[in-house]
Design a protein that fits this description.
Radius of gyration of chain B: 21 Å
Structural class of chain A: alpha+beta
Radius of gyration of chain A: 20 Å
Number of helices of chain A: 10
CATH topology of the largest domain in chain B: Butyryl-CoA Dehydrogenase, subunit A, domain 3
Strand content of chain B: 5-15%
Shape of chain B: globular
Bound molecules: flavin-adenine dinucleotide
Low-confidence stretches of chain A: none
CATH architecture of one domain in chain A: Up-down Bundle
CATH superfamily of one domain in chain A: Butyryl-CoA Dehydrogenase, subunit A, domain 3
CATH superfamily of the largest domain in chain B: Butyryl-CoA Dehydrogenase, subunit A, domain 3
Largest sheet of chain A: 4 strands, mixed
Shape of chain A: globular
Oligomer: heterodimer
Number of domains of chain B: 3
Order of helices and strands of chain B: HHHHHEEEEEEEEHHHHHH
Strand order of the largest sheet of chain A: 1-3-4-7
Number of helices of chain B: 11
Chain lengths: 308, 382
Amino acid sequence: MDFSPTPEQEELRAQARAFLAGSLQPSWDELAELGWTGASVPEAEGGTGLGFLEEAVLFEELGRAITPTPFRSTVAVVLPALPPDLQGEVARGEASWTLATGPLVQDLDTATRIAYVGGDSIWELEGAEREILLTNDESRPLGVVTGGSAGRRLGSSKLLPLLRTRSLTSLALEACGVGARALELAVDHANERIQFGKAIGNYQAVSHPLATTLVELELGRSLAQFAAWCVAEGDDRAPVAAAAAKAHCADAAVAACERSIQTHGGIGFTWEHVLHRLYKRALGIQAWDTSGERLRAEIADHLLGGGL
Amino acid sequence: MDLHDTPSEAQFRGDLRSWLAGNRPGATDDDAPSPTEVLRDWSRRLYAAGYSGLTWPVEHGGGGKPYSYQAIFHEELARTEAPQHLGVIGLGMAGPTIIAHGTDAQKASRLAHVLSAAEIWCQGFSEPDAGSDLSAVRTSARLEGSHFVIDGQKVWSSYAHIADWCLLIARSDAASERQVGLTCLIVDMRSPGIEVRPLRQITGEAEFNEIFFSGVEVPVENVIGEIGEGWHVAMTTLLHERGTLGFALTASLEVVMRRLIELARDRGATAVQRDAIAREWIELEALRYTAYRSLSDLMKTGVPGPEGAILKLQWSEANQRVTKLALELLGSDAQLLAGNAPYGGYWQYQQLRSRGNTIEAGTSEILRSIIAERVLGLPRSR
Ligand SMILES: Cc1cc2nc3c(=O)[nH]c(=O)nc-3n(C[C@H](O)[C@H](O)[C@H](O)COP(=O)(O)OP(=O)(O)OC[C@H]3O[C@@H](n4cnc5c(N)ncnc54)[C@H](O)[C@@H]3O)c2cc1C
């Protein structure tokens, strides 16, 4: 039994963090060159033949950096539904994807291709019109598609539960990244900012909420890592683990940002400071697709049997 | 990263599972804490089967196994709701302290008896004026020739009423202050001059005690570590105690959670209560996998990380919420005691007992300060 990252995963994290710190809006080509877009694509198709645990590292790091990219939509959500040749296109950086399941679609501004569900299949949507809507989280606009027609059949709609599990897990991992960064900013500020002759981190009214934040985030990281491991292993517990991770991590990330804003005082309330962007991403994760409350209702059904 | 058992872990788990099926004490329906003698007998059987001190070195009667075996042990115990070994303090605190700092003679004379539960230990750390601030200890240990003379008072000492030995911290240098001048000693609880007064707790039972020492003689050979280095000794103990504590705590919460789910199935739960149950179940899962993560680190580095504080803090608060939630599901029946109460008063007892969880072994406030300082690197607030 070993639940710690491998040295290769640690290295990937360090590499990703360094790259994203220097490249705020990386192109899809750049991500492909790094081998990220094809991380889990078989080597025969031009990928790197790694797995979901490596992608998990990337979801978290991209969340931490609030990088605007269709990476999550493409890799976490659509990729397993793509036939091998289209996976190869993703690996080579020739295509990125998003899945239109509800009225609002993520990453419509950046994804080159659109998938949708019709009948028992997942299809490519061709010739649709895209309208991009303004969103709270500037780094991840939403949009609506109208018109268009079915293109190539991509896969069976039986894959949808798997895609959902992967989507929830990747959101949880992103939330871990967002929350951890918000907490680090708070800790730095609490160590530097002097009031009443002392660094404000001396005051327990400041330090204890930050300790609570660490606890919530560490618990969240455990849930998200477990969900990722279940996905990677095809473990039966994956759907429930993913629901638990998304419900917990989104809330933990939002709370981390809120406590960090409070710790920063006035500066935390400004547009200039990065905190509001982290906060808006955390709120976006919390709101996206299935709320924590709904996920907990699903978990309660799983634990207790159907509703009243 | 692999959560599967290795083949030898799987073998160990399988053997343990069948052993437990044949050996665990009969499940009592009234869920009253098992009487001491039942637990002592159970602990002896655990020892005879090689399940006490799994991670202790073989030369001290332990199993010499990696920490993952201890984790599996706790998981399987929780699965069958078998009780823990009676010698909680000996196994978790006194034993590891003696292994780390004790003399060969101390190891040879005490350790095997800890494992077999032939000897029960208590911990004499807290005093009326030294609680969270352990460095305020005033109980004195005065060196007179070949023995120390102990005078003073300890309080909140669990198991002292049944203990054979006490792991004591006392001030050996009368002129010293705070962390300096303290010494750790092994004290025979049958020594003349010791008086134990049980304290009745919020639950009505008396599992912790006051200990009064007046002119109690303790041979110098009973010093653990160096004279005057007691603080260092005590801190190592607390650190190692947390090594696998997370698993024991998670396992105990798992039992409580399973019963909460049964209760909700029996009695029904509103949508809001179902939400709360799901929330607590998520917390339990989070605790479990956090314990796995800290175990993996422990097995790689050999040093317990600060996660111990995280697990204890989170477990204690989760246990309070879960037991409170159970009382809420019981409605007016929650007021009934023991015989008249549903499930033999299990929930009423557990809920009251849980209030101690955020006080014992480091209060939540102190643990938050430890996390803030040692994990986050914020300035010391104390
Ligand atoms: C069930 C149970 C079993 C126990 N068993 C044992 C045992 O076997 N052996 C033993 O030695 N002791 C034992 N204890 C004692 C336990 O370790 C102490 O109760 C604990 O350390 C707190 O000390 P105190 O009771 O003196 O409270 P205090 O230290 O006086 O604390 C009172 C309150 O003030 C808060 N506080 C104190 N200092 C600070 C600070 N710097 N910052 C913020 N808040 C602060 C505390 O968190 C707490 O809320 C047991 C306690 C319980 C409840």
